[in-house]
């Protein structure tokens, strides 16, 4: 569910939605979602001063707490 949420938000923000991919991996402190977008869209996902990335992490945390899980979001450049 959280993976789909982040993918939906990212596809809504970028110019090339087909290049958006979200991978879920196990980390030390819980699950980690790794978000990849096209090179030209990385700034749109991070936002000015990282505000959009912070908002995405906040929504992810709120969704995960509801399910009793712990998630973190990594935005990776290609």
UniProtKB/TrEMBL annotation:
Residues in the signal sequence: none
Molecular function as annotated in GO: RNA binding
Main location class: cytoplasm
UniProt keyword terms in alphabetical order: Cell shape, Cell wall biogenesis/degradation, Chaperone, Cytoplasm, RNA-binding
Keyword Chaperone: yes
Biological processes annotated in GO: cell wall organization; peptidoglycan biosynthetic process; regulation of cell shape
Transmembrane stretches, start-end: none
Cellular component aspect of the GO annotation: cytoplasm
Role description: A probable RNA chaperone. Forms a complex with KhpB which binds to cellular RNA and controls its expression. Plays a role in peptidoglycan (PG) homeostasis and cell length regulation.
Name of this protein: RNA-binding protein KhpA
Phylogenetic placement of the source organism: Bacteria, Pseudomonadati, Spirochaetota, Spirochaetia, Spirochaetales
UniProt gene name: khpA
